[in-house]
Amino acid sequence: MPTLFDPVQLGAIAAPNRILMAPLTRGRSSGVHVPITALKAEYYSQRATAGLLIAEATGITQEGSGWPSAPGIWSAEQVEAWKPVTHAVHDAGGRIILQLWHMGRLVHPDFLGGAAPVSSSATKAPGDAHTAAGKKPYACARALELIEIPRIIADYVRAAQNAIVAGFDGVQIHAANGYLIDQFLRDNTNERTDAYGGSIENRIRLLREVTQAVADAVGADRTSVRLSPNGETQGADDSNPVALFTAAAAALDEIGIAFLELREQKEFGNFGKTDVPRVSPDIRKVFSGPLVLNQEYNLERAEADLATGLADAISFGRPYISNPDLVERLRLDAPFAPDNFKTWYAQGAEGYTDYPALAMEAA
In which region does residue 22 sit, left (phi positive, over 0), alpha (psi from -120 to 50) or beta (all else)? Predict the structure, then answer.
């Protein structure tokens, strides 16, 4: 049976171990969504011992970008700023892909010159958005017109192509966590009555079309997807998650993507939600490619899901904030270093590149 430290093939990427770094929004970009190159190059190269780094959620257009200091991948300037980051990871022996992000209704009008955000339907997310001027209530989105859908698909394709030009080894389509594609998937955010709404087959249509178009552009073996079959997420929820997410996974299996990553709720984590069942066993039945699971794993639970064949690899998120040498800590079953929440989204090196490796801690 495989362990975390055995190699795994993820499409075109030969990962030397099954420990992936999950995408983590950390800021450290300019006001026009250009990565602060030196900081990001150091940050990601420090973590290059992971089997694969999934770089942070990165906006595919200004329309889809609603997080202060988050990076983008739609402009030439952004592409050039990413190149030294991917080079640094490769020089350190690592592999890195970029997560493609459209936030949909979670983009505040402040990022759009006052215009309304777009979504599957004219709905409003609960709570407040993070803006450069502080937290502000989300605004009601406008429903994308049918004629606009090809433009959205083209935006994903262009961003994927830019990512390859920037030196990334592949891309991940962010279809999770209540963002645009997830807003199309779930029945409490999708109120459409056209070909992209109503039935499950219609609601997964945008996911299928985006993924197929990106796979055609950069290769299915360099295209992955993230889903979150974990109950309500940022106001997005579904009345029949098993049927929805197994249908989505089956469609992705037909395309032949490199791997599927699931952020799911579990009995041992759940952020207090203990009534959300795991959907991954059902998805495992319909998805034949590599399946990567994510959510509050430790060594014991990760090895258990690999041993049963439920997962082919495990992605670790928050532990990678403060443990750049997470692979070695897991190998030694060493304690994880704590992180400082106050510096998660700061702009400087503090709480970003200054966490020591285990050997430095011991010294």
Answer: beta
